[in-house]
Amino acid sequence: MAQRVPFYASFKTIGHLNAAGDWLLYLSVFINIANVLIERLPVTDQTTTWKQIVTGLICLLAICCFLLDQLSNYLFFCANMWRRNDLFDNSLNTVLSEVISEGYFSNDEIHPGIYKLGVNSFENTFLTLAVVKEQLRSSVIKLAIVVIVMLFAIIFGPNEWFIVLIQLAIPFVIAQQTIRLLLLKNRLAMILDSFKQTFALPRGQAQDNYIINAMTNYEATMAWASIKLSDKLFDEANSLISGQWIELKKRLNIQ
Description:
It is built from 6 helices and no strands. It has one domain (8-251). By secondary structure, the chain is an all-alpha fold.
């Protein structure tokens, strides 16, 4: 069956915005290196002009990165709401979305209800955690590189206080994202354990209560993090992760 994911385009747009933000970040790092080199040149009218241009570009890029981040966060809020509506439609047979997804969840054999809501949310948690682990590694590497370059630019570059503040803001943004990824990974691991314990219980009202608790914890955590998962990392690991999910369902006798 062909896959149809109505909210995919929204997350794709967020991915493009994040990619644009990354390119602006890399450009900012390059310009800061250029600023250090210009600072080492003899003072002339030409070098003074170039210094003013570079300073203006550094400020402009910082503003653009901030605006892109705010726009991305807002679009993520909207896309996450549509994804959550689709979760309820698929799990509880509600009609919250104009178009429901097809082939997005792998649990169509389960009858709609709280139990299916739990299985779908369990699957979301399992797949999200696997991608977040890989994404965290790349984020730590990016943070280390940017911090080293920016420290170099601050130490050997101009001493204007506003330039230093902007230079510090760049690694701060990446550090904030990396810390959120780390906290997200730890929180998702706890929620995944909660789902495993929940589906080890016999089916009934008690299990339904724990399902609702774990599901809301997952949704609240994702809303707090506001992190777009990497499509590239997901596609690379999709077949392996999907196979592991199927095996986990068998072990817990989820059907």
